[in-house]
Automatic annotation (TrEMBL):
Residues 973-1016 are annotated as: Disordered. The keyword Transmembrane helix applies. Keywords: Copper, Disulfide bond, Membrane, Metal-binding, Repeat, Signal, Transmembrane, Transmembrane helix. Pfam families: DUF4215 (PF13948), Tyrosinase (PF00264). The chain crosses the membrane at residues 31-53. NCBIfam families: myxo_disulf_rpt. GO terms for molecular function: metal ion binding; oxidoreductase activity. This is Tyrosinase copper-binding domain-containing protein.
């Protein structure tokens, strides 16, 4: 029968005999079915001689003449008595010999091993070779790569280790896998077992039962679960070396690793099958190749001050049949080498002055690993350089670093030997004028409020320059705050500046600019209202900042008066009695004072003060205290300056303006018990308390020293006499619902009418006239109106529109050529009289006729200032006045006494050059103040922002309402103008590269490069942190935030903080051709070459720190407001939630914006009901729609002279806010637009 016939007869259960050689020259052994007969014979012999023969393996794989013996190696080697054998010694006696140290023939006949583990898992394999280790250990090698090791002396059964287990190998015959690696522990010969292998039906092994916990993705186990839980990447990919490494412990992707879960259970039993040797082979010795260095392996070895490279060699011939073993040192070794220094790798080597683990400048060790001037760096060979910067305080100031009481010179230092050894050396500290790595700034002092705090941190609203190793210079940013939120020092400085400006005569000139007829006609009731007053406020603020030549007021800004917040406080507390009850700005000690004085008052309305006609008591008698002050004056201490003076008697002085508030009568009991003070109808009084007490307010500054007109306010500030000021809910409604600027409708008309007009109309006195700026309240009131405009612009993203591309929705004039976008704002000043002064009511002529035609009262009375105003206004030609001039011809630096005999020197210059509305479109793009020669002063930017108050911060949190605070998007231009890097001045723009990932560029996950396995590449800063950990050193604070990708290119993503506290992004915009453009910036690469890259800007209102490493906040944290324990703040937050969020949450609409639109009107109406409730007893007087308001006559004084509009409707009409009639759109607003929502809600 041929070979093929036998194969067919026995199928796959029998393997044909072959004697051919394989490619390596090794014989392949196979066994035919004839072995069964021989097996039976030998089985009989085995039984006869008493040797146990395992008949279960006889049908396959037993060589003719072989017998099989089962041996329990657990007993034989580990625990049994046969482990020790006695041998006769030549000198007598016996020597104890270990079984493993002799009788190798014992192991030569082991052909198969079976291992059983504690969990019942069983594995059998055919052996190929073994070697005996020098510590009496033993290693068996299986033909498929298995290794079974017994450690040696002192070991137990559980110490047996099986590795290299395979699942399935399809093999028809068995090849001895020589060429295995050796370990350095091999001492005796590696021997091949000299016997035929026992067959496992086509495989060299078999797993008999159960399953072990292996480090393998394909086996469900605790190990697999642990690996894929700690490194999610392993769960969706084939396991790479990093996954497998997790089986042994922590990796760079696994914080803990899975060593315990992946450990295999211990061995409990090892059994062997021994076969009788049938052939003796010629021993073959081990042959190895020469050592060869691994290219590129020369590098620093961690923990040693030397470089090493790897050398390897190969085993050319494996030892067999008892041949000589391979060399004990193995096939790999490390040898010293000379390696090149790599700047930034964290190992200081020859050729480097320092190496701090990065290639950055300004941290002591620059990108070329050269110590920077002013720094000291450690120089431990092969160590990580730690650089410090400071200042030694020795016998004389010298730059150095103080360590352990000794001043060590830094690079570039000129310290003398005496200074270096000075025992008085002190550590560098905050306030020494040198910023160190742990300081945000150091301006040479420990005073807060100057931009760099007492603890060397950059303060809110300040822009600083400098950097590590330099002295910090800070300037205060132009930020307008809520008066309520000013510090005591800020309030005092502002009020002081106002008083100084008043003393210079400049203040009254600014007032006259607003009152001038030509200006007031344009600036009210037109689209120019908002940009005109933005320009006007800016000029006033610049005048304040210029009031002291030494710069004392250089950082002063106009605080805004959030009267809507005052109204909300009243609502939240169940109502208020007076306007000043919750208004911080009216405080007599820290604010601007309250209503007019009873002792220096007139009625009805403004007029000459008569000390015999002051408010009277319940019996009708004069109140003695009032009359005493009126006739004799009073002692007064200014609450702001602390100066004590005498306010002069006011008899014969003149109050100004009017008031619609009726009188108050008091019974004697109310006066005695409740402090009720009787007030005549429409009473107006001088301001005699607060920091502006005693102010006199002339129309013409040159008459200032002779004026009799006092700063005036209404006496009756009781809310139940006139009604509340507009609340925040109404403002929210206007800001959100009005999408366009409009002409006689839209946002401008809505905000100018009732919200803007009410404070003017209801407080009375000067502020109810066109001379309203005579009262400093005016500027804070209009600062809030300007803020609301900026809020509306932010809300609808109008503020970022280029001023050259503004559309009609952002600004629309009422008449072309008058108040359109590109026509000059109307700013004029009356000219000087030419020749004879004709402004005299006693001189007949064209001037007298014109004036009396303008105001009939002037024809029958001695001309007052109102009459004289026509001489330079509407009757300028007839009265001989020169033509109007620009304000800059009068508002300019002049010597003392020029503006008025008692005026001090002034330093302010009005800017007549920028007058178009487009120049004032955005508060973030207002250019710079001018120098004396008309050039721009780049150190004095005019752009500003409004600091958020409680109202803004709460609205920011309210669902569906737009965010109008200065955050990530808004204020971009302002923030760019405040850049603090030198190279920021070298900006340019380029087209966005094709494929550039600009969408969501502030999200780093979109832009982090991946490695070959698809895993994120470790960032430079993370690597730097590990270097410090490697050297056992504390990580510097500058590395606690991730800052870049290490390339400096910024073409994939912008810097961000790994903790999520800040991020940065690109500025991408479209040019005139519609192409996407991106801002670029210059930087120096690692070779010192000037390069360019995409410029990154901090998000969320933050700015770069002084070294362009971290984005820092210059805006207050919202949590300060939300966590405030101030009772007023808590009341407002609670009120807004109940009134706003609750309505939105209860809405049935799905979309937030729909819920908001549905809720805004209801929120406003509920606000009205809270204000005008039964408890407050306040009734809303609607004189706009009651049929009498629009036709009410003007208020007149005792002499019958008109002093102001006689109703709210007439007040609005006089300010150009009457309802439009017909096709007219100029100086009017749409019908019903001025209606107060509270008119119909209560």
């Amino acid at each position: 029968m041929g070979k093929g016939d036998r194969d067919d007869e026995f199928g796959t259960s029998s393997i044909g005999l072959t004697t051919g050689k394989d490619e390596k020259g090794m014989g392949k052994y196979a066994f035919g079915s004839w072995s069964v007969l021989l097996a039976i014979v030998f089985l009989s012999i085995g039984i006869a001689i008493g040797t146990f023969v395992d008949s279960s393996s006889l049908p396959f794989g037993i060589s003719s003449g072989s017998e099989v013996e089962n041996v329990d190696l657990t007993n034989e080697i580990t625990e049994g008595g046969r482990r020790m054998m006695l041998e006769a010694h030549p000198l007598g006696g016996h020597v104890e010999r270990h079984l493993l140290n002799h009788n190798t023939a014992y192991y030569d006949t082991i052909s198969q091993l079976t291992v059983v583990k504690e969990n019942g898992w069983t594995y059998s394999f055919n052996t190929a070779s073994y070697h005996i280790k020098k510590d009496n250990g033993l290693v068996f090698y299986g033909i498929n790569g298995e290794e079974l090791e017994f450690p040696g002396d002192g070991s137990t059964t559980s110490d047996w280790k099986l590795t290299g287990v395979v699942e399935s190998v399809a093999m028809d015959t068995f090849e001895l896998p020589f060429g295995r690696r050796l370990t350095t522990e091999v001492e005796t010969s590696l021997r091949a077992t000299e016997r035929e292998n026992v067959s496992f039906e086509g495989q060299g092994h078999r797993a008999l039962s159960a399953s072990t916990k292996l480090c393998d993705k394909n086996h469900a186990s605790d190990c697999k679960t642990c690996i894929e839980t700690q490194d999610a990447w392993c769960s969706t990919n084939n396991w790479d070396s990093s996954c497998i490494a997790g089986c042994d412990g922590p990796t760079k992707y696994m914080a803990k690793g899975c060593k315990e879960e992946c450990a295999e259970p211990p061995v409990v039993s090892v059994k062997a099958k021994k076969t009788k040797e049938v052939d003796k082979k010629t021993p073959i010795d081990c042959v190895v190749g020469d050592w060869a260095a691994v290219t590129g392996s020369c590098s620093v070895k961690a923990g040693s001050a030397a470089c090493y490279e790897k050398e390897t060699r190969s085993i050319l011939t494996q030892p067999q049949h008892g041949g000589d073993q391979c060399p004990s040192e193995g096939n790999e070794r490390l040898v010293e080498c000379v390696c090149e220094p790599v700047c930034g790798d964290g190992f200081l080597m020859p050729g480097e002055e320092c190496d701090d683990g990065n290639a950055k400048d300004k941290d002591g060790c620059d990108h070329n690993c050269i110590i920077e001037t002013g720094w000291l760096c450690t120089k431990e060979p092969f160590g990580l350089s730690e650089c410090t910067n400071g200042k030694c305080e020795c016998s004389e100031w010298g730059q150095g670093v103080c360590q352990q009481g000794t001043c060590l010179p830094v690079k570039g230092s000129s310290l003398t030997i005496d200074c270096v050894s000075d025992a008085q050396c002190q550590l560098s500290k905050c306030g020494d004028g040198i910023q160190t790595g742990v300081e945000q700034c150091d301006d040479g002092n420990t005073k807060s409020g100057d931009g760099c705090s007492a603890t060397c941190g950059i303060e809110l609203y300040h822009s600083c320059t400098g950097g590590v190793g330099q002295k910090t210079e800070c300037t205060k940013m132009r930020v307008r705050k809520d008066f309520r939120d000013l510090t005591a020092e800020e309030k005092s400085l502002y009020i002081e500046a106002v008083n100084v400006l008043k003393a210079q005569g400049v203040y009254d000139l600014i007032v006259q600019t607003h009152a001038h007829l030509t200006n007031k006609d344009y600036a009210h009731g037109s689209s120019g209202f908002l940009p005109w007053h933005r320009k006007y406020l800016l000029e006033y603020e610049n005048a304040l900042r210029s009031a002291d030549p030494n710069g004392k007021y250089k950082d002063v800004t106009v605080p805004y008066w959030d009267w809507a917040e005052d109204t909300d406080l009243c609502s939240a507390n169940g109502g208020c009695k007076t306007y000043d009850e919750k208004g911080a700005i009216f405080d007599s000690n820290t604010g601007m004072g309250g209503p007019g004085s009873f002792a220096c008052s007139s009625h009805p309305h403004g007029g000459t003060i008569d000390c015999d006609d002051l408010p009277k008591d319940a019996t009708g008698a004069d109140i003695a205290a009032y009359k005493a002050e009126c006739t004799s004056g009073k002692s007064f201490t200014n609450p702001n300056s602390g100066e004590t003076s005498t306010l002069s008697a006011c008899s014969g002085d003149v109050t100004w303006g009017s008031t619609g508030a009726k009188g108050i009568t008091c019974s004697q009991t109310e006066m005695d018990e409740d402090g009720c003070k009787p007030i005549p109808d429409n009473a107006v009084g001088c301001v005699r308390d607060g920091p502006f007490a005693g102010w006199m307010s002339p129309e013409y500054p040159e008459n200032k020293d002779n004026t009799k007109t006092c700063l005036s306010r209404g006496l009756n500030w009781f809310i139940d006499s006139q009604g509340y000021l507009t609340g925040s809910q109404r403002l929210t409604q206007i800001i959100t619902q009005q999408k366009e600027y409009g002409s006689n409708g839209g946002f401008r008309a809505y905000i100018e009418s009732t919200p803007h007009a009410n404070p003017h109309n209801l407080l009375g006195g000067h502020i109810r006239s066109f001379s309203s700026p005579a009262d400093p309240l005016f500027f804070s009131h209009h600062a809030f109106i300007d803020k609301v405009w900026s809020m509306w612009q932010n809300c609808h993203d109008h503020d970022e529109t280029d001023k050259e591309k503004v559309s009609s929705k952002e600004y629309r004039g009422t008449q072309n050529g008058w108040d359109d976008y590109n026509t000059d704002l109307v700013f004029f000043f009356p000219g000087e009289s030419s020749g004879e002064d004709k402004c005299d009511g006693g001189i007949a002529g064209a001037c007298k006729t014109c004036v009396e035609g303008k105001d009939s009262w002037c024809g029958s009375n001695t001309w007052d200032q109102t009459c004289k105003n026509f001489c330079t206004g509407g009757c300028a030609t007839e009265c001989g006045a020169a033509g109007e001039v620009r304000p800059g011809t009068k508002l300019k630096p002049v010597a003392a006494g020029v503006n008025c005999p008692s005026c001090t020197q002034s330093y302010y210059q009005f800017d007549d050059t920028r007058l178009k509305p487009k120049f004032f479109h955005s508060i973030h793009d207002l250019g710079y103040e001018l120098n004396a020669d008309g050039s721009e002063n780049l150190n004095k930017p005019q752009s500003y922002l409004y600091a958020p108050d409680q109202f803004d911060i709460k609205m920011k949190e309210q669902k569906a309402i737009c965010d109008w605070t200065e955050t990530k998007h808004h204020g971009k231009q302002w923030k760019q103008d405040s850049r603090r890097l030198a190279h920021d001045n070298n900006r340019q723009a380029k087209p966005v590269p094709k494929g550039f990932k600009h969408d969501g560029s502030n999200r780093p996950d979109d832009h982090i490069p991946l490695d070959e396995n698809g895993r994120p590449v470790e960032m430079h800063s993370h690597r730097a942190r590990k270097l410090y950990e490697l050297h056992g050193q504390k990580t510097p604070s500058r590395l606690l935030a991730a800052v870049d990708d290490g390339t400096g290119a910024n073409n994939e993503f912008c810097p961000y903080d790994s903790t999520g506290e800040w991020s940065s992004s690109y500025n991408i915009w479209r040019n005139d051709d519609g192409d996407l453009m991106i801002d670029m910036e210059y930087y120096y690469d690692d070779q010192g070459h000037l390069m360019e890259r995409a410029a990154c800007y901090c998000d969320d209102g933050k700015v770069w720190d002084l070294d362009h490493v971290t984005c820092v906040s210059i805006m207050p944290d919202d949590s300060v407001v939300f966590n405030s324990q101030d009772p007023d703040t808590k009341a407002i937050l609670s009120y807004w939630y109940k009134l706003g969020n609750k309505l939105i949450e209860d809405s049935e609409f799905v979309k937030d914006e729909d819920s908001l639109q549905f809720s805004l009107d209801e929120m406003t109406q509920r606000e009205c009901k809270l204000l005008y409730n039964e408890k407050s007893k306040i009734v809303r007087a609607d004189d706009v729609k009651d049929g009498t308001g629009a036709s009410a006559p003007d208020f007149t004084d005792k002499n019958g002279h008109s002093v102001g509009p006689g109703s709210r409707a007439k007040f609005l009409e006089g300010w150009g806010l009457a309802p439009c009639v017909g096709d007219n759109e100029k100086k009017c607003i749409q019908v019903g637009l001025a209606d107060d929502p509270c008119d119909t809600s209560v």
